[in-house]
Amino acid sequence: MVERGGPCPMFLDRLFGRTGPRAAAEALYDTAVAQARSVTFYRDFGVPDTVDGRFDMLVLHVFMILHRLKREGEAGRRTGQALFDRMFADMDRSLREMGVGDLSVGKHVKRMGEAFYGRVKSYDAAIEASAADGGAELGDAIARNVFGVNGDGAARPSDAILGALASYVLASIRVLDGGPAADLLDGRAAYAALPVPTADGEDASDAGGD
Questions:
Q1: What is the pLDDT of residues 63-76, one digit of tens each?
Q2: Cα distance between residue 175 and residue 171, in whole Å
Q3: Quick one: how far is CA 3 from the chain centroid?
């Protein structure tokens, strides 16, 4: 029997097929991880196949979903927070599996969280500027964050590489922006087709990829 005050939200979610924020975040995170691990980024674009390189590709793909969720009010905020929490629970688990001691895990996760927020801020600004600069600032942000340019003496990738990756991110933003909000809040997201580097700096990413 339903108590006075009406059925609880969880019951309504099950009744009407809606997924709660945690379940949606789990599915969205799995999608981001799968895309971020695509071999083309490491084989064809020279993204460092290291812990840091893979972390930064994951941050980039989670950012794209969070960018879309910002448009969905309180439901988007809750799902975005659940996605962030899921990501950093995974970071905690991964650090422990790598043998990082319990006393150090918290410090590592805190630093990763600070890095995450810094990258999200830079990507947000670059997306905002992309209409005017064609993605130049986004390419610079990818160079800094993913390839470590301006730190550790890392060489800057070619303009072709950075342009293709920036175009892929912008195409993915368009794909996510064009998808139904209900799908995203139920944990279903898609990115643009994976980019293909070419000699002249063009890329083959489009708005119809998986």
A1: 999 999 999 999 99
A2: 6
A3: 41
